[in-house]
Amino acid sequence: GYYTTNDDTTTVQNEYMPKGVKIDPVNRPSTPATVYFPGVKVIVAGREIEPEIDDNGIVKTPGPIVFRETPLRLVADLASLFGLLLWAILLIRSWGFEKH
């Protein structure tokens, strides 16, 4: 039925589960958990390291967690910024240079 995997979440068939999850979780974690996404780093002894991830996609490496831009995300951000600037320039030019 509809609620077979819906455990008070927005997902019904784990369609929003991160790709790093190898085994679909049966129950929700009893404590807060950090799910791994590209760009997640753990700070250990003052250095950023790649975290250890379990089969459920949960970060297991203890320590403070930071989220950094990946190269692909940075390129996408710059492309979005370029598109927004181009749109603004074209919009301003269309207002100011109408022929009479």
Overview of this protein structure:
With 100 residues, the chain is α+β, with helices and mostly antiparallel strands. The protein has two domains: 19-68, no CATH class; 70-100. 26% of the residues lie in helices and 11% in strands. It is built from one helix and three strands. Strands 2-1-3 form a three-stranded antiparallel beta sheet, with no helix packed on it. The radius of gyration is 22 Å and the shape is elongated. The model has no long low-confidence stretch (mean pLDDT 81).
Short description:
The protein contains 1 helix and 3 strands, in the order βββα.
Assembly state of the chains shown: single chain
Strand content: 5-15%
Treating each run of at least 4 consecutive H or I residues as one helix, how many helices? 1
What is the first-to-last residue Cα distance? 66 Å
Strand order of the largest sheet: 2-1-3
Number of domains: 2
The ordered string of helix (H) and strand (E) elements is EEEH
